[in-house]
Design a protein that fits this description.
single chain, alpha+beta, Immunoglobulin-like, 3 domains, eight-stranded antiparallel sheet, eight-stranded mixed sheet, 13 helices
């Protein structure tokens, strides 16, 4: 009898526990059809809930105030017919829980962001997003991901009902770009990266050939490397005049109509300059170097992403120069770019000083970690809040040129945390921390602050500073670096940069201008009232100058080559 009573009590306690653990409120049950695959899938199941019918919900997640709602959970070895559950305990963005959503009619869509297993040379087996497939590493557009058809629902946070969603479509492949007379597309297997990742890894490039390339087989050309995010093809170059039937769009960023027409006109104007009789003949390339963590590698060696810096500098660049008759010497190579590309241009010049003859870094990502946007990583204790005994004032992430703040750093990290755990969001803030940070015990990146609280880990920060803080590295190593960088450093930024990137440039300028042994002998310039992507033009609006990177630094490149080329260097074969 006592045993029977004990069993009854155990059953009662267990039932009570199960009832208490089950969250109250609605939940979503998501599966995928057998027609998509009969194989198990690893990845992140994402659910978007939207009150905006203008486009598919999966395209409506952003940092700004117009974002819709996102929820996500990991799935491991999920098969057709099995379900992933999104309930009120699942973390969401910007609302944390389904229970916070008001009653109403919404459009919902689910996406299965598929992961692949990478068996790396360091012994770790990691589940990560695939290398870029032409979309720029974006969960909402990655070919191969499963999606559901958007559907209308009536949602009530007080109901304990289950809403079922089935993924029935696979995002199709992206057609590769076609070669033209002027634009060529190449891929090259990197031995360095293939060894690191335990699979074949390819680097790519879009090459803009000079006018007369075929007609002048004797010519060898300087090389200009235009760094930035993943480029599908060579952008900003258009042989045809603007499309007269193009419906003008509106740019909320710049507050003007017909910006799509302006883009086409600028691209065609560049084509006319490029093929004109007085334009210097050179090669310009845009590099494709995605990692499973982002659409570009930042072109540096990293314990988390691999030896991309060496692979680009010592494998890809020589491969391109050999195939397309580049001069192939450091005095005839230049770097330029904006934002991420600006950081890469400066970092590659600093880390490979003999391989390049000048960098033109516009609005670079943080080049001094005392101004990691608005964080001082050397001193701050928390990444999300201003230090205070009584207040919790959040640190801004982005502003308009009038100072209007649209999002905080905590909110951005919250979004990326929902998209993917362990640094797998492929978001900009996550990738800074992944690329610049050390490796954790499980092989995934170890980030410098707690994603929930913002508390900063000093040991991780010190690793980042010593390896990727460009001002710190230059100051530390100036005795050997200075003579190699003399005349090669040029930086441009708007003093109202939308991500506060001008603050780090000011720190860098303070160091460079105070250093006289040797003096850096470069150029740092600020655009009064200009925002992100400003690149040195004080006369024209930013919406135009940001489209002119491909030609505006050419005169400075020429002057630098003429003044620094070694005796006997070829300064003539390419000046036809």
């Amino acid at each position: 009898m006592r045993l029977f009573i004990a069993i009854l009590l155990l059953v009662a306690v267990t039932a009570c526990s199960l009832t208490q653990d089950k969250p109250s409120g609605p939940q979503f049950s998501i599966d995928f059809s057998l027609e998509l695959t009969d194989q198990p899938i690893d990845g992140r199941m994402l659910l978007v809930i939207s009150n905006d019918d203008s486009r598919e919900p999966r395209f409506q997640i952003s940092n700004g105030p117009s974002t819709q709602l996102l929820f996500g959970v990991d799935v491991d070895q999920m098969r057709a017919g099995e379900t992933a559950i999104i309930d009120p305990t699942v973390l969401g963005y910007p609302l944390r829980s389904l229970n916070e959503i008001p009653s109403g009619e919404y459009t919902v869509q689910a996406v299965l962001y598929k992961y692949e297993t990478y068996n790396r040379a360091d012994g770790f087996s990691l589940k990560l997003p695939p290398m870029d497939k032409g979309e720029g590493i974006n969960w909402s557009r990655t070919p191969g991901n499963f999606i559901s058809t958007p559907q209308k629902i009536n949602f009530d946070p007080n109901k304990n009902n289950t809403i079922s969603i089935t993924l029935t479509e696979e995002i199709p492949p992206i057609e590769p770009p076609k070669d033209t007379k002027y634009i060529k597309h190449i891929q090259m297997k990197s031995e360095m990266l293939s060894e690191f990742w335990g699979r074949d890894v390819y680097l790519g490039a879009n090459i803009l050939l000079p006018e007369g390339f075929d007609e002048h087989p004797e010519a060898q050309y300087p090389l200009a490397v235009f760094h930035g995010h993943f480029p599908y093809s060579f952008g900003g170059f258009r042989e045809d005049p603007p499309d007269p039937d193009l419906e003008p769009d509106y740019s909320a960023r710049f507050g003007i109509s017909g910006y799509n027409r302006i883009i086409q006109q600028e691209a065609h104007d560049f084509y006319k300059k490029w093929t004109g009789p007085d334009f210097p003949r050179m090669l310009i390339i845009q590099i494709q170097h995605p990692t499973p963590y982002f659409d570009d590698s930042y072109a540096v060696n990293s314990v988390n992403t691999g030896p991309y810096g060496d692979a680009i500098t010592y494998e890809l660049i020589p491969y391109i120069e050999k195939q397309f008759r580049g001069i192939g010497e450091g005095w005839a190579r230049f770097l330029y770019g904006g934002s991420t590309g600006g950081w890469i241009a400066l970092a590659n010049q600093v880390l490979y000083p003999d391989e390049y003859n000048g960098c033109f870094a516009a609005c670079p990502d943080p080049i001094d970690f005392r101004a990691f946007t608005l964080l001082n990583l050397m001193e701050d204790e928390n990444a999300y809040y201003v230090k205070s005994s009584w207040k919790k004032t959040e640190i801004p992430r982005s502003r308009a040129t009038n100072g209007y703040v649209s999002v905080t750093l905590r909110e951005v990290q919250h979004k990326e945390r929902v998209i993917g755990a362990k640094g797998r969001s492929c978001g900009q803030r996550d990738v800074w921390l992944t690329t610049f940070g050390p490796q954790d015990k499980d092989g995934y990146p170890k980030h410098p602050w707690d994603k929930e609280t913002g508390e900063i880990d000093r040991e991780v920060v010190q690793y980042m500073i010593e390896n990727y803080d460009m001002r710190y590295i230059m100051e530390r190593d100036w005795a050997t670096l200075g003579s190699k960088l003399e005349g090669k450093i040029n930086i441009y930024v708007g003093d109202m940069d939308n991500s506060y990137l001008n603050n780090a440039v000011e720190y860098m300028e303070e160091f460079l201008e105070s250093t006289t042994d040797p003096y850096y002998d470069g150029f740092i310039d600020y655009g009064d009232g200009f925002g992100h992507c400003w690149n040195g033009d004080h006369e024209n609006p930013n919406y135009l100058t940001r489209l002119r990177y491909n030609w505006m630094y050419v005169p400075q490149m020429l002057a630098r080559m003429e003044s620094s080329a070694p005796a006997g260097a070829d300064l003539k074969s390419w000046r036809y």
